[in-house]
Design a protein that fits this description.
Blueprint lengths: L4 E2 L30 E3 L9 E7 L5 E7 L2 H16 L2 H6 L6 E8 L5 H19 L1 E11 L2 E10 L11 E2 L5 E5 L4 E2 L8 E3 L2 E9 L1
């Protein structure tokens, strides 16, 4: 069940295009060394999200996101999906649109959280195309087999896009914990390595 209410608040945050971190205002949450790795540093509270990067693929577009929690990793991957669709103009003007709030949720079938993440991101695409609601913020909780999120959205007809994501695929899907001391290798010069403890999410989008 969804509860929506309009507000006059502007969308917070700064949009950064392509392979740069999606949340530069949270950059202090991660350490970027000359050797290009991200280290989860005991992040706590609601400010625990880190960043997402574009994943190089032979076709379509991939996203890899890092966070201190599975909820944060899903949030970051979702914001990455939304951000890569925007045109340069859309990235600038989306911050001036009236924001609304609501609660969206999807079930997790067979305790399969990675597939639950895909279903959540597909729900975000459906809300845009079917209900004209463009997600600009999400605060996710995972409880009792349900992914639920307090969301912020704007009228999708007012958002200028240059890329359309048709679907979230199962190809190269990852959502898992990176153990303490484990180093998840980066991808060439596009994505830094990640040192646990923390969580990584990865999805490939059909465009």
């Amino acid at each position: 069940m969804e509860m929506d209410s309009p507000t006059s608040a502007r969308i917070s945050g700064i949009h950064t295009r392509r392979i740069q971190p999606a949340s530069p205002h949270r950059e202090s949450c991660a350490t970027h060394s000359p050797d290009r790795f991200v280290h989860a540093m005991g992040l706590t509270g609601s400010d625990d999200r880190m960043s997402w990067w574009i994943l190089p693929t032979t076709a379509d577009i991939g996203i890899r996101a890092f966070s201190s929690s599975p909820e944060g990793a899903i949030e970051e991957a979702t914001l990455g999906m939304q951000a890569i669709q925007l045109s340069e103009s859309g990235a600038k003007t989306v911050n001036s649109l009236v924001r609304h709030t609501g609660t969206w949720s999807v079930p997790i079938e067979d305790d399969d959280l990675p597939r639950g993440m895909v279903r959540w991101m597909e729900e975000v695409l459906y809300r845009c195309d079917g209900e004209d609601k463009w997600l600009v913020g999400n605060s996710i909780s995972i409880n009792d087999g349900i992914i639920s999120s307090q969301v912020s959205w704007v009228d999708s007809d007012s958002v200028e896009r240059e890329i359309e994501v048709k679907a979230v695929t199962m190809h190269e899907l990852i959502l898992r914990r990176v153990e303490e001391g484990e180093l998840l290798p980066g991808v060439s010069n596009d994505i830094p390595s990640f040192e646990g403890p923390g969580w990584v999410a990865q999805v490939v989008l059909d465009v």
